[in-house]
# Entry
Amino acid sequence: VPDRLSVLKNRYPHQIRAIETGLLESQSAFLKQFELVGEVVGQSTRSQFFLGAEPTWHDISSGADAERQVYGLMRIAIASAAGGVRAVALVGQAGSGKSTALRRLALEAARAGATVYFLKAAEKIDTKEAIAALSSAGTRQIVIFVDDAALHAGSLQLISGSLGQESNVTFVMGERPHVLNPRLSALQHLKPVLVENPPLNGEECAQILAKLEQFGYLGKLKGRPHSEQLREFLGRSRKQLLVAMKEATSGRGFDAIIAHEFFQLASERARLAYTVACLAYDCGAPVRIRHLLAVVGGTDIEAATVIRKELDGVLVPWKDSSTLVSPRHRVIAHQVASETSPLDVRRAALVSYLGNISSEVTPDSITRRTPEYIGYRGLINFDGMLSLFGENPELIRGFYEEMRAFYSEDFLFWLQYGKAELHFEDYEVAENYLNQSLGMRAGAGGNFQAEHHLGVLHLKKSCTRSSAELARQDAERGEQILRAQIAQRGRNEAYACAALVTHKLRVIRKWGGPRVASELESLQELARSTARRHPFDAFLQDAVVEISRA
# Structure
């Protein structure tokens, strides 16, 4: 029997080498969340990269990805950020190639001699261990890559703010622009450099086609003249890279490809489990295999057979994990969750999964941002309900009533149920549910969303009153709540300002009054000044346009 160190050397050779040279003493907890990037060792498993899966280190090491224009831009930005504690962010839509770019750049930086880590955690970063590990590095250059960075913006703010002046740490983040932009204010001290992932150009398409041919994935394009291949690919490349690849090489539309794959699954139980994984991953959360087994039901052997055989290649290990799986890509997950899966399957998947994870949505899981909590937070969200089920009050109310048995002690559940009733204009019930949410979490813990929606509720209710005096009281109460939120949180977010401008304008239009002109001017000035601080907030920009027209 080999000794323990020999086993570790075989399994984690580059990490053991680093430990032996004294670089990573006392960093075992840090390495549970951050992978030390080095030369790729071991045998490559069957790659799903060209079928839509996010890349593995073996995919990158074997050169499966094509050189992109954005790689050069990112290399320059990372090199310029060396020295001190800085940040570089690659922003682009889902499926545009961000994850591939980050892994390529991480491997190159490691080969160039930097100490490089890649975040692999599904949960919130252990900031204490991260600060201790990075502080002990002295002036050595460290580059930390964080994919899906929005979840970790608060942790990165705390870590970077705790590092000394001698530190030489560069955080390289990847995220969708509309998700990252509202969180950039927390990272302003890092002077983040934003690099946008541009649409594919002709040269990039040619290189991607060459890779597809090299690895045998040209599909319907095989044997066609190069100019025709390029024209076909360029015609689709204004969509996400992933969508372009699948459409161009199969000759069918992306939605038809995904639908065919979904309905070709061998059983209803496989389609249910796949829908669960897609719903959760569309919210940013991988799924634990044990939860999928519970959703599938039947004997352990039957459930395991569905996961292992019927969903082989459809679900893949999440970041090389042995316990977490996900669809191949978030773009695929979104298509299945919102379009492909039938409405009854979608609803059954939601109810089954949320019921199964309810015992694991605890204060500790909220603090650590576990996959269970991230999935619950996304799936219980009323805005998500609208995108999944449309304007269907009966179905949505029925769903929340079914979830009441599992989550009636959670403030977030009542917040989202209250938002639903507010949207469907049952103001009395909505106010009751929002107050229940505030009763469970208020004060120092904060429940600003419930307060925000109460403010909106009173302004909306003002427009339904038959009495001008009651309308005035409602409007004043709503405005008071939203202005208090603007004062408290206006530097970090624009939601309260956008809501106040939008809904107070409707009150003015409904009831008028002696000071209409001055009130409109005041709202316009508030909207414009807030828009200067939050230029990327779409709701606020719409409010600016609306109040300016008024």
About this structure: The two ends are 80 Å apart (CA to CA). The chain has a mean pLDDT of 88.
